[in-house]
Write a structure and sequence with these properties.
By secondary structure, the chain is α/β, with parallel strands linked by helices. 35% of the residues lie in helices and 17% in strands.
């Protein structure tokens, strides 16, 4: 791909509401804006938790059914799923991840959403999911630009690389 053919626009779909499900989309959107690309984030299903005021800063690492989860470090020994089901494991794993992300200067979800929006990225909620979860505009953080139908999202994403996280 030549310099003239380089990617200019990305639309990132965030569908998972876990800590490790939301951050990849945020990091990718932020990186795209820092590279001068147009970026849009489309939150659907449990990914909406990242933009719902009362949930956005309370996301947790999924410890059950996550075969990649390792202890005591992210590249350590695999953690059996049964251990992930123990009370407090999700809270412990989340605290460990937050500590490491803080060390790397990666902001909490609410602050990151604000940074990404201030950098010019679009923040959108999926209308079907909003209706299904019976959410209202006031449930969302102020950075949400609009609630879109899937068709509107596709129109917004014309000529963009669509990324599903």
């Amino acid at each position: 791909m030549s310099r003239h053919d380089s990617l200019k626009k990305v639309s990132i779909i965030v569908s998972k509401g876990s800590f490790e499900g939301v951050y990849p989309g945020l990091i990718m959107a932020h990186g795209a804006r820092m590279e001068g690309m147009e970026a849009n984030l489309f939150f659907t299903f449990f990914g909406l938790h990242a933009i719902v005021k009362k949930k956005m800063n309370k996301l947790k690492v999924a410890t059950v059914g996550n075969p990649a989860l390792c202890v005591p470090t992210p590249m350590g020994m695999p953690m059996p799923t049964l251990l992930g089901a123990l009370p407090g494991m999700s809270t412990l794993a989340t605290a460990m991840m937050k500590k490491e992300m803080e060390r790397l200067d990666i902001p909490p979800v609410g602050e990151f959403i604000e940074m990404i929006h201030d950098a010019g990225a679009g923040i959108y909620a999926c209308k079907a999911t909003v209706d299904m979860f019976k959410l209202k505009r006031e449930d969302f953080c102020p950075q949400v630009d609009k609630v879109l139908t899937v068709g509107e999202f596709y129109q917004l994403s014309a000529e963009a690389q669509i990324i599903f996280t």
